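Wed. Picked up where I left off yesterday with NHL repeat-containing protein. The coffee machine is broken again, so keeping this brief.
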Amino acid sequence: MPTILGTGEHRYRVVENFAKLPDGWSLTDVASVAVDSKDRVYVFNRGERPMVVLDREGNFIRSWGEGVFSRAHGLHIDADDNLYCTDDGDHTVRKCSADGKVLLTIGIPNKPAPFMSGEPFHRCTHTALSPKGEIYISDGYGNACVHKYTPDGKLIKTWGEPGTDPGQFNIVHNIATDADGFVYVADRENHRVQVFDGNGRYETQWNNLHRPCALCCCGGGKQPNFVIGELGPGMAVNRRVPNLGPRLSIVDHTGKRIARLGGEHGPGVETGKFLAPHGLALDSRGDIYVGEVGVTDWNTSFPDTEMPAAVRVTRCLQKLERVTG
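Structure written out below (tokens, as returned):
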């Protein structure tokens, strides 16, 4: 029997062994995923081939990015199938064509801004686009802010600082936008998603999340849903506590939870469990693709257990197929 996660209108079948890679290839950590207009899946990973492209059945199409990226982190795709690849290893965002041609680089490779200076970038994490094509960049691990750029890469403004108050961040890890131009920020270690207008004015926040890590806006309408990947416990003291994830939560445009997928019994490699959801994307049919950093997270979740070989090869990419009818 297939494994089904979720309830009601939000039920998903776990597709086992989704990625069909050439012999000897490994994805290792899948930092982020994106789906283009033809339902091709772009897998931004930390293996030898940073960008692996699959069809919606998991069949290998091509790969690119060797020698370009230092450490994959965030991936966003626009309406023209251009990819915005955030590299927290060399502190840049590169806009690339679907076949890997670099069209624009924001940031100076391997020259980070001073730690917590608010200047771009120090281990930037992700990107999102406004309805006008402006680029928002979350920044990230060595900063606590969001930068807004023109479509051609000129800095417009920056907001945010370290802290726990509204408009402050404790690892600004992911970012998304909606059709009205509102900006949604996964404020990971503050256990919340903060919502801003397009100019960085604080609007509200969504709570009752545990280390929100991945963030995806579903649909281009006025009242979209969001899928949030929650990383789960990161400390030894609560590692075995149930109902903390890792998991996916689906919320409406107000942040009200309407479904939850997995996470009741902690992390695992068993079908229906997650390791460390880090990136999310949906295809035209509403199927969910989950990139996980299970290799990096393994010693946190399973300090006394040897990591199965499958985690390094393909287990850090999962597909959840939407159940209809």
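Quick read: The domain at 4-322 is CATH 2.120.10.30 (Neuraminidase).
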